[in-house]
Amino acid sequence: MTSHALKTPAVAPDTENTPIVDFWIEVMAPKFLKYRHILVGGLRHHSAAIIPGLPICKGDRVLDVGCGFGDTAIALAGRTGDRGHVHGIDCVPAFVAQSWHAAEQMLIGNVSFACRDAEKLLPRAEFDYVFARFGTMFFSNPVAGLRNMRQALKRGGRMTHIVWRDRDANPWLSAAREVLLTHLPQPDANAPSCGPGPFSMADEAATRAIMEAAGFRNIRFERLDAQVLVGRTVDEAIAFQLALGPAGEIFRVAGAEALAKKTEIETDLQRLFETVPKDGSGLWMDSSSWVIHADAAE
């Protein structure tokens, strides 16, 4: 195994987290850790389908933005070979720790991880490729975040990021949300949250404009449909939806009202998930994403 030093600038000691980053660390991270098996087991289908075909060469340096538990960075490291290197970043320290642990357990030597906020600080002109799976959708300032990703690329570098398509194409997120909205109000726009949300880049024209403003060119959208795991059992699928995603946000923001109606809500969610196809590993629902490829402007 080959070790590679990475010239990643340190975040200044007096740099404060944004409210969104604090929300991820304090509220979202414990839930993601609890349901890691669902998130990694289900979402990997959207990256596993495309990583083998990405134009990444042996020896390339790759940046994985919003690396989560490290599974995408480790998969990308298999593409770069020992002469290359993959650096994964995430704003949540617990995710970065899990990523390091996974790489060490698998004896992967050409990957590293750091806690970084991509909207604030990235290295300049160090990478041949930048990748992100379901992370850019949560940028509070998507132009700034994507511009940082573009500036992290070397001359002629390329990027790929994966985002969810529209709500109707993703019943794994939207179906439970509709159930919750029959019981509870839509959260106020000013409620604390993890960012703009999973469908903030669903509109092709709007996302193309954001990427062009960030300096990307030759932008291509590719639709990818895949089944995603929503729980090993009906009970777990219900608990997962009440913890994360749009349904989880509705339930969390409603507070005492949600707790008072929890039994009714769970009954309706049980009816929903009893109709979902199931195999030996759990319940699977339809999902759809945009795989967006682009080049850095010369």
Short description:
Helices cover 40% and strands 23% of the residues. With 298 residues, the protein is of the alpha/beta class. Strands 1, 2, 3, 4, 5, 6, 7 and 8 form an 8-stranded mixed beta sheet that branches.
Structural class: alpha/beta
Mean pLDDT: 92
Reading the helices and strands in chain order gives: HHEHEHEEHEHHEHHHHEE
Distance between the termini: 34 Å
Sketch the major β-sheet.
8 strands, mixed
Low-pLDDT segments: 1-14
Individual helix count? 11
User: Got a strand count?
Assistant: 8
Q: What integer value in Å does the Rg equal?
A: 19 Å
Q: How would you describe this structure to a colleague?
A:
It is a single chain. The longest helix is centred in the N-terminal third of the chain and has 16 residues, at about 20-35. The protein has about 300 residues and is an alpha/beta fold. Strand 2 (about 85-90), helix 4 (about 95-105) and strand 3 (about 110-115) form a beta-alpha-beta unit. It has helices spanning about 20-35, 35-50, 70-80, 95-105, 140-150, 170-180, 205-215, 235-245, 245-255, 255-260, 260-275, and strands at about 60-65, 85-90, 110-115, 125-135, 155-165, 215-230, 280, 280-295. It is built from 11 helices and 8 strands.
